[in-house]
Amino acid sequence: MRNECLQEFQSFFKTDIHKILKPAITNWLSLKQCVDRVLEQFQLQPLKAYFIEVVLEDPSLTTDEILSTMNNQFTQIYLEFMSYVLDLMTDFNTLFQINKPLLHKLKLETAKLLTTICSNFIEINIIRKNDIFQLNHKNAHKVKLEQIYLCITTHKSFESLCKVPEIGQACNLFLKTILEFYIELVVI
Question: Source organism's superkingdom (predicted)?
């Protein structure tokens, strides 16, 4: 019944008809697909309209929290950012799922991934001068918060949201959260 209701909203908003995906517990790589699907439906409004109706017809703590999260101005930006990062991680992981030995490429590909991620929050000259595996990622020369790379899509959304003066502190908190996430991602 809920799937039919969601499909009605998707039809009304003239978006592709999709089911809500659930990430597979045993395959974290499915998260990228789930995030992208939520983003697709989120940007075109059918998902939000669906949850508004669900909250009105059958309220529960879960659906209230989902709707509250969807109403948060930063939710779409976080999803865009996660799509970017999950894309990096998924590409790296799928490279090693090929049915031929690739152990000889592991160090090179890991260095590429670490360099890509670290260049998003560490000064590039520090990355060039040091072995990426020996770099102190927690205490390296980080770029200023406002210079952290978010990816093009996330950056555009973030810039437009942060033009609103009342949410300057929330924008700063968002960037600090992204920095902490990047550090957590690369610390071995």
Answer: Eukaryota
- CB distance 143 to 122 below 8 Å: yes
CA distance 80 to 32: 10
Cβ atoms within 10 Å, residue 3: 11
Nearest-angstrom CA–CA distance, 140 and 118: 10
Q: Is the pLDDT of residue 159 over 90?
A: yes
Can you tell me which residue has the tokens 């152990």? 103
The amino acid present at 129, given as its one-letter code, is K
The continuous run of DSSP H or E covering 157 comes out as helix 152-161
- What's the whole-model pTM score? 0.81
- Cα distances from 125 to residues 74, 121, 136, 187, in angstroms, run 31, 12, 14, 19
Q: Is the pLDDT of residue 2 over 70?
A: no
| More confident call, 142 vs 188 | 142
Which residues, at least 6 apart from 100, have a Cβ–Cβ distance to it below 8 Å? none
Length of the chain: 188
CA–CA dist 188, 184 (Å, integer): 8
